[in-house]
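Hey Z.,

So I finally got round to the glutamine thing we talked about over coffee. Here's the setup:
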Amino acid sequence: MSARKTVEHIKNREISATDHLKTCLKNLEQTKHLNAFIRVFEEKALDQAANLDRRIQKGEATGPLAGLVVAVKDNINIAGELTSCGSKILNPFKSPYNATVIDKLESADAIIVGKTNLDEFAMGSSNESSAFGPVKNPHNENRVPGGSSGGSAVAVATGSADVALGSDTGGSIRQPAALTATVGIKPSYGRVSRYGLVAYASSLDQIGTFGKKTDDAAFLLQQIAGYDNLDSTSADIAVPDYNVSLENVKGLKIGVPKEYFAKGLDNEIKSGVLSIVEKLKTDGAEITELEMSSTEYAIAMYYIIATAEASSNLARFDGVRYGLRKGDEDGLIEMYGQTRSEGFGDEVRRRIILGTYVLSAGYYDAYYKKAQQVRRILKNDFDKAFSACDVIVSPTTPATAFKIGEMVDDPLAMYLSDIYTVSANLAGICGISLPAGIHSDGLPFGIQFQAKAFNESILFKLGNYIENNL
Ligand code: GLN
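And the result:
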């Protein structure tokens, strides 16, 4: 049942919020070994559901997400709860406040079932860098679910939650969505408040949603989107109604950049994605070939800018302000060093070192400044592309889910798997990943559509159309 229908049924008393939550908890229990959750709020959630059922019985008004079961990535703060970011360094930090998105979920009467596992500080594409162990892919338990929001993707894929929140800095919603056959949207930069999201790379980070189907992701985004004066980068632009569909795709202009279908892409994924494009063409869409030459530099840009910002953002985890503190007896500098060496995992340390390097005197101009300049060229490429088309199509990932452990010793190979997703973050635009088929290796893969900033609606319309008609 869709998220929208589920809420309708709960409000009409066709099902109780409690029974619905119990179904999710049962699914969660049965798939516990996949390690999607870092914490489950079973009692609290059951209390909330019982309370909601009482209010519904009394005929009281309830919020637009009444009884909807939501999983939340563990880098989003919930007041009074631990936030781990998949790291040891924050333990046992409890957030004193709610992220804006959590305030919105609570006032909409959603039920938060638990906090989901992630790559440490959202750095990764496989969920293996979590201090809480890797998450397994439900389609094949020897494979990764993608990352960094792998826990949220698996929570939705297994029916442990109806929908989930993730964060996407370079693909962390879209890539795990593709690898688990769920739908994930990275909204435009500024569409959703980042207040209460632990910062990784502030000019790229954005909270977004997962659902089984497009409309589920849209339904949740509707509630969390919008201006927030607690986030100075949040955009004061009205949120349209995301309950939208297309009668047909006649005249819809779809851009196909040749760089997105070049070497390095799995052949079956390529033909799977292109066959969807072909069907849309048969239904009346206009296909335009595009050239986006800056794509070649997207990964390099991203891993300079993201690590630079991370090295600055993560400076605050120093043993003084939060959680872990080691080596007190040896003086302040020793304490910083020991806390950070013990608290951070390998990947996070690698990125802090890289980021510090690209920002250092003598290298700043050659790396960081250059990356920012090329970022502007990439943004211009997108502006030009969107003057010729409504959406840009690509695969979400170049390959299906890799084996757990397969890439841990080769970070560069792992970084390359973000090739199709990082550009949307660099340009500040929105992107969605939809299930596109099953590969002969038995694993799902995704198709990505990107659209102009603040035009999430077109992505939802197209997603709904594809699900209903192709
Ligand atoms: N895989 C990318 C990275 O490791 C993206 C992560 C993300 O979007 N949070 O940085």
